[in-house]
Write a structure and sequence with these properties.
Blueprint: H1 2-7, H2 13-17, H3 22-48, H4 55-63, H5 65-98, H6 106-124, H7 128-159, H8 180-183, H9 187-192, H10 209-238, H11 249-260, H12 267-298, H13 316-334, H14 339-371, H15 384-405, H16 418-441
Helix pairs in contact: 3-10, 3-14, 3-15, 4-5, 4-14, 5-6, 5-12, 5-13, 5-14, 5-16, 6-12, 6-13, 7-10, 7-11, 7-12, 14-15, 14-16
Length: 462
């Protein structure tokens, strides 16, 4: 469930649906080009180095602790950039029924979202066991229940022959490869399936991690496809693309489906389930992000105060810092008057910072195969040297191509100038890289300091 919670979430489905039935094609391609290589590569790395730290540990083993810290810095920034969108999604879902119109106000979504984020941060102080149980509940409420309900209602909708917004034909699933602006929406498919590797932050809290983690990655990947493909098709078929909100698109679809069977009275229930589930899943995400940075702090990359934990092993100082930075990012979210533009910019910023550390992760597995071939790896990417180069090399190429494509504004966003769009995105990548290098150079360890081999960084249970 932890792996699944990092990979999926229905909040990204409306962004996918913006590309129409082409979204299914992009999802399948993302499954092959993102889910498969990330699952295989992170499974090998986690089985060979089953200690807390995830990306930080793996990149440090391959390229040294300073590069490992920069990789972890990108992981941290990627999460911080994405938090305002997540906060806003759950607030929008909460007010969609009771206060229509507020779901389209960035000021309202951002300000209330900040409060929710701080509450989730405080709850995270309880530790991994408490947040792990809550995360399981969150997955059921925020993903499985709405997804199953949406799929069942969609099947009834199609079975009754009700009108659809698009003609569902085989040709409709093939995108127009001549339109770069149209293809750029495909980056949301990549981001939909990113994040499962972050579950490695908790690897010291599970039994038999060498076997459990790879199995969890593949099960989580399969569940993603089972959930997202039918949900996306139903979303495309029932709500006009020009009316679909990136914030509350899921509820818009559920509303249409419920009204079609005269069950509109149940819409508040679905909204409540989505909201409660999204809120319950926040502590796990916040804790995992802080866990990787805590591993880096224990190795001397941050001031000693950031290594402090409470009696449950939770890095409280880091969590408070994280919440503070997320608050600043959320305030910037207020400045964008169009909710759809704000959500898309946040999505792409999060994706681009994710792509940078993915490039380092793929490079790490290739280098470790050469420099540490004798390190026991209960799971290896199949195919020997050829297999690892096909998987990791293919992942590298796709990540670079997606990074380039992500700088093209999608045709659906006409309210933002391309130069402004690209400038905002480029500034985040450059600022993240420079700040990570500056912090790393000011840190205590020398470039040759070995990575700590003890179990560090993962929030302990009570």
């Amino acid at each position: 469930m932890l792996v699944f919670s990092f990979i999926t979430g229905l909040g990204n489905a409306p962004a996918l649906a913006e590309s129409g039935l082409h979204a299914v094609f992009f999802l399948v391609m993302a499954a092959v080009g993102v889910l498969a290589p990330v699952a295989l590569v992170s499974a090998e790395l986690a089985s060979g180095w089953p200690r807390a730290g995830g990306i930080y540990l793996w990149v440090s083993e391959a390229f040294g602790p300073r590069t490992g810290f920069v990789a972890m810095w990108f992981v941290w920034v990627s999460a911080l950039v994405g938090y305002p969108g997540l906060f806003a999604f759950l607030v929008a879902a909460a007010v969609y029924v009771v206060a229509p119109g507020l779901d389209d106000s960035t000021w309202f979504l951002g300000s209330v979202g900040i409060g929710v984020g701080w509450l989730a941060t405080v709850f995270t102080f309880l530790g991994i066991r408490a947040t792990g149980i809550i995360t399981t509940i969150a997955n059921v409420l925020a993903v499985f229940v709405p997804a199953v309900g949406l799929i069942v209602l969609g099947a009834v909708y199609f079975g009754r022959g009700l009108p659809t917004q698009v003609d569902i034909t085989a040709g409709g699933f093939v995108p127009d490869f001549g339109s770069v602006a149209g293809l750029s929406i495909a980056v949301s498919a990549y981001f939909t399936f990113a994040g499962g590797e972050n579950a490695a932050q908790y690897i010291t809290a599970v039994r038999s991690p060498q076997r459990t983690y790879p199995r969890a990655m593949f099960v989580g990947a399969g569940l993603c496809l089972v959930v997202f493909i039918p949900v996306t098709i139903i979303m495309v078929a029932t709500v006009p693309r020009n009316e679909l909100s990136l914030a509350v698109g899921v509820l818009q679809v559920i509303e249409v489906l419920l009204d079609s069977v005269s069950l509109g009275v149940l819409l508040p229930l679905f909204a409540a389930v989505l909201t409660i589930g999204a809120c319950a899943g926040l502590p796990n995400l916040l804790a995992a992000t802080a866990a990787g940075m805590h591993a880096a702090a224990r190795d001397g990359h941050l001031p000693e105060r950031f290594d402090r934990t409470n009696r449950r092993g939770v890095p409280v100082v880091l969590l408070v810092l994280q919440a503070g930075v997320a608050t600043i990012v959320s305030i910037a979210f207020f400045a964008v008057q169009n909710v759809n533009v704000a959500f898309w910019v946040i999505t792409v910023m999060g994706l681009q910072t994710t792509l940078v550390y993915y490039l380092l992760m793929y490079g790490a597995v290739l280098r470790l195969r050469r420099t540490q071939p004798d390190t026991p790896r209960p799971f290896r990417v199949p195919g020997g040297s050829v297999g690892i180069w096909i998987v990791a090399g293919g992942g590298l190429v796709l990540a670079l191509a997606t990074l380039a494509l992500s700088f093209v504004p999608p045709s659906q966003l006409e309210d933002i100038h391309p130069l402004v769009f690209d400038g905002m995105l480029a500034s985040v990548i450059v600022a993240t890289a420079i700040s990570g290098l500056v912090v790393s150079r000011r840190s205590r360890p020398s470039p040759d300091t070995p990575v700590r081999t003890s179990e560090a960084g993962a929030p302990a249970g009570p």
